[in-house]
Amino acid sequence: MIWYPYEQMKTMKEPYEIVDAEGVYLYTKDAKLIDSVSSWWCMIHGYKHPELTSAIKEQADHFSHVMLGGLTHAPVKRLSEKLAEILPGDLDYCFFSDSGSVAVEVSLKMALQYYMNKGEKGRTKVLALTHAYHGDTFKTMEVGDDEDYHFVLEAYGPKTNVINIPTEIDALEEAFAKHHQELNAFIVEPLLQGAGGMRMYDVSFLKRARELCDTYGVLLIFDEVATGFGRTGNRFVADLVLPDIIVLGKALVGGYIGHAATVANKKVFDGFYSDDARCALMHGPTFMGNALAASVALKSIEVFERENYMDKIRKIEEISHRELDGFSHPLIKEVRILGACACIEVYDEAVLKGYQEFAYNRGVFARPFLTYLYSMVPYIIKEDELVKIFATMKAFFTEK
Ligand SMILES: *Cc1c(COP(=O)(O)O)cnc(C)c1O
Fold first, then answer.
1. Is 133 labeled as catalytic in the residue annotation?
2. What are the backbone angles phi and psi of residue 384, rounded to the nearest 5°?
3. Is ligand 1 within 6 A of the CB of residue 189?
């Protein structure tokens, strides 16, 4: 049987079985649903996009996969060139992997080894944020701040290699003053903390972080697995503040195949570039640089640029404000919007029980979690479809 994610299998309700999908719509045997969460935020072009689908088909006619150990190929070369071209600064050195979690692991491994290679053996700690989510593997859980992993704390006791701070400049300055000699990296989900509750914060925090990282020689890592490719209304948050390493996933491949990239700047790359074999980055996921993934990622980026997706995202943000600003209800704590992400936070998570069925019956697929009811729509969504998502959210409260 299938062991489903994040579910108590004993009590979980039957998942909806999808038989087809096109554009923003998911089809079950008897329902047509707008996907308001883009299949965990990655289907930015919607489903069954003709160009993305044929990019995969064309590549499959040649070869679907060859390993990058001792081999290389045109799609992955072109993707690394394309990423270097569209990413700001000298974020030019692309390490590929098969999922966001692994790509974050790679970034943390890079940061630690960067300093070990330099002989700075005391830099063993990572600074991260409270409410951070960076993936579900062990090191990403450690830098994250998620109560779902209570058993890890129970087993191993409090973390010793990670310091989590809130997104407040005072806390940031204090952490650097106190710990800078032990830090190899500061990792953040820039501007928008996703799985930790769609928390939005100001760019001034990131600017100060960049200054402090420069002052104390700490690497700044942006986990843009969720925010990359437009979600915050910026193409990349790295366009505003330049990190040393950026991690991309989710939308990188338009949601078609699991793939991710850890892209480092020259300074980080040079920390490994040596006559000493022991300075090499020892990592190599089996499916890194998969040819189908690289081909569809290239097509996804081409469509993103050609179809002016940043304009679409601005329009989504505008409509989100028009439809949700000022909406209030005694059960609602806060409504917040950034780019193509909108979130209604309630006081009590019991309130959102039943929302998924409520939305299903109105033709919307949603997956609220804890106290967060949110949308992360495909960028191709039409105005009436977006309005319907927000109308469904509002109706849930006004009909209570
Ligand atoms: C989803 C996500 C990850 C993990 O990506 P996977 O592909 O699910 O492993 C890491 N960081 C952030 C910010 C994410 O949103």
1. yes
2. -65, -30
3. yes
- The 3-class SS string of 238-279 reads HHCCCCCEEEECHHHHCCCCCCEEEEECHHHHHCCCCCCHHH
**Are β-strands 192-193 and 199-200 bridged in parallel, bridged antiparallel, or unpaired?**
antiparallel
The whole-number pLDDT of residue 154 equals: 92
Average pLDDT, integer, range 307-317 = 98
- Is 6 annotated as catalytic? yes
Residue type, position 32, single letter: K
- Taking residue 23's Cβ as centre, other Cβ atoms within 10 Å add up to 18
Q: Would the CB of 107 count as within 6 Å of ligand 1?
A: no
Report the share of the chain in percent with pLDDT over 90.
98
- Strand pairing partners for 95? 262
| Of 82, 51, 122, nearest in space to 248 by CA | 82
Q: What is the pLDDT of residue 87?
A: 98
Task: Find out whether the beta carbon of 134 lies less than 6 Å from any atom of ligand 1.
Answer: yes
Strands (E), 216-371: 219-223, 245-248, 260-264, 332-338, 341-346, 364-365
Query: In this predicted model, what pLDDT tens digit does every residue of 156-215 receive, in sequence order?
Result: 999 999 999 999 999 999 999 999 999 999 999 999 999 999 999 999 999 999 999 999
Rounded to the nearest angstrom, the distance between the alpha carbon of 194 and the centre of ligand 1 is 9
pLDDT of residue 217: 96
Distance between Cα 327 and ligand 1 center (Å): 30
Query: Which helix (H) or strand (E) segment is 128 a member of?
Result: strand 125-129
Ramachandran class of 21: left when φ > 0, alpha when ψ lies in -120 to 50, beta otherwise: beta
Tell me: pLDDT of 147 over 90: no
pLDDT digits (tens, 9 = 90+) for 100-109: 999 999 999 9
What is the distance in A from the centroid of ligand 1 to the CA of 227? 10
Extract the tokens encoding 247: 């991690």
102 Cβ contact partners less than 8 Å away, ≥ 6 residues apart: 135, 137, 260, 285
**Beta carbon of 285 within 6 Å of any ligand 1 atom:** no
50-67 in b/e form (b: 16+ CB < 10 A) is eebeebbeebeeeeeeee
Please name the residue whose Cα sits nearest to atom 11 of ligand 1.
134
pTM across the whole model: 0.98
Residue 400 has a pLDDT of 85
339's torsion region: left (phi>0), alpha (psi -120 to 50) or beta?
left
With b for 16 or more beta-carbon neighbours within 10 A and e for fewer, the 375-395 pattern comes to bbbbbbbeeebbebbbebbee
